[in-house]
Amino acid sequence: MLKDLKKICDPEVFEDVFNLYGKDLRRFLFFKTKDIDTAEDILQDTFIKLWENCDTVNYSSVKGFLYTVANNLFLNSIKRNKVKQNIIAQLGSNYNLESPDFVLEEKEFLIKIEQTIASLPEKQREVFLMNRIEKKKYKEISELLDISVKAVEKRMHQALIIMRKEIGNV
Amino acid sequence: MKDQNNIHNDQYLAQWIEGLISDSELKKLVSEEEFTTLFNMREKLNTYIELQQPLDSIFDSIKNKIGLKSKPRKVKWNWALAIAAIIVLCLSLVTLLNPNDRVFETGFGEQKLIALADGTEVILNAKSSITYNESDWEEERTLNLVGEAYFKVKKGSTFTVNTQRGSVEVLGTEFNVNVKDELLEVVCYEGSVLVSQYGKKTTLKSNDNIRKVNGNNIETWTSSLSRPNWVDGESTYKSMPLKYVILALENQYNIKFETDLIDNSMLFSGSFTHTNLEIALQTVFGALEIHYYEKEKNVVTLTSN
Question: Which residues form the FecR protein domain (chain B) (predicted)?
């Protein structure tokens, strides 16, 4: 009874699958394309393909299906458009597009950023996250924390000095 | 560092990242090498931030392209049922000769809307009941609750909900009371309510939540819903001991869980749907890395890794 209920053609299940794998797939595609817009376009097309095949894909194998389709769509896209030139130009001509080293390197930079943010002193981290992730203006932050705008900017400046040390030269 | 108006040694990076100082202005402030490093840092940060952004808009455009209508999952409350409930109540007022204690209860997976004589509305969640004395109702608006219910109280004299774990007093407001075993949870959606537990009184204002699980401290937090999610076919929890989430699943789906092999004091934050058991199980236990399988009909065994 339980196993057979998971049908990807069920819109709720489909949305759950998207919520479960969407972000990871976007990262995966970004590592490959090095371009967030292209990554998100391919992400969309991948899920449209999943929907078109929803009655033939089992829930248990959906992850494999998504990554395979995403990878194929990515390879097709470099065959026909300029993403290829961008990537080749950036990486040098002897670069192998599917090299796991490249993916690893890119993952490492994200992990490095996460670790650096986590290592910031509490007061700096608070301001940094409110400003960069939550997109709050310094004025709003100063009101929320009940400190001057100048103090907010000082904390942010300190945080950026640390970020620069850790990730500026990678 | 050059001396310029409004640019301070210990703030300029903050102003630059926010766009208050342009790249060319920054170039004047720092060495070329330093500028390259900073520029590089900003690019990386922006990429990181973009990868953190939610995917809602992408899913919306996927839905548009495949012609999916937006969420069909919300089950709207059927007001016809409300009218039916009122008619039943009126009829029973006429026909019952001895209208003293009145009981309303719900079975597994059932919800009921009850209209009380004073216009107060009560929505009972699954496996719950309310009892009240009808003859005293005009003088004393007091009822007993077992389980979970959402109240929309008509303004008037004090309205009291008694439970085994404490009482809730209000003047005219919307609130939810959930009482199971050793748990008492109250959420106020409008107005204010007074919660009494063993002589301890707490006042809740709009959007305040309070929870007490026996032996633990009282927890309070705020939320911004206008009514409880379960009314719309979804149960939502914030750091709730798993035991009570499992109880709610049992009441909703008329199943039993075997929990001997797991730690049911783990905390669960999230929601489960009332319309699809498999998805409900997956959202609750998937998140906690608990395996589940159906041992026999309607008995689900839980195991941890």
Answer: 104-193
- Tell me, yes or no, whether A42 and A114 share the same domain: no
**Residues B177-236: tens digit of each pLDDT:** 998 888 888 998 888 888 887 667 888 888 888 888 876 778 888 887 888 888 888 898
Distance from CA of A110 to the nearest CA of B (A): 6
- In this predicted model, which residue has the larger pLDDT, B261 or A105? B261
B224 & B126 share domain: yes
Q: Is the pLDDT of residue B19 over 50?
A: yes
- Please check whether residue B44 touches A, CB under 8 A: yes
Alpha-carbon distances of B153 from B114, B143, B159, B190, rounded to whole Å? 12, 12, 8, 10
A-chain residue closest to B39, CA distance: A168
For residues B299 and A1, the answer to whether their CB atoms sit within 8 Å is no
**A164/B73 touch (CB, cutoff 8 Å), yes or no:** no
Contacts of A36 in chain B (CB under 8 A): 47, 50-51
Backbone φ and ψ for A162, nearest 5 degrees, come out as -65, -45
Are B200 and B159 spatial neighbours (Cβ–Cβ below 8 Å)? Answer: no
Chain A residues closer than 8 Å to B12 by CB: 157
Final residue in a domain of this structure, among B210, B229, B248: B229
pLDDT on residue B169:
85
- Cβ <8 Å between B293 and A2: yes
B22 touches chain A (CB under 8 A): no
Query: B61-65, B75-79, B292-296 — which is least confidently predicted?
Result: B75-79
Residue B90 confidence (pLDDT): 65
pLDDT: which is higher, A155 or A2? A155
Instruction: Please provide the size of chain A in residues.
Output: 170
Q: A116 with A56, same domain?
A: no
Contact B233, B251 (CB under 8 A): no
Record the pTM.
0.42
Per-residue confidence (pLDDT) for residue A81, from 0 to 100: 63
Selecting from A5, A26, A133 the residue whose C-beta is nearest the C-beta of B278 gives A5
Phi then psi for residue B149, to 5 deg, are -150, 155
Q: Do B55 and A22 touch (CB under 8 A)?
A: yes
Domain of A135 in residue numbering reads as 100-167
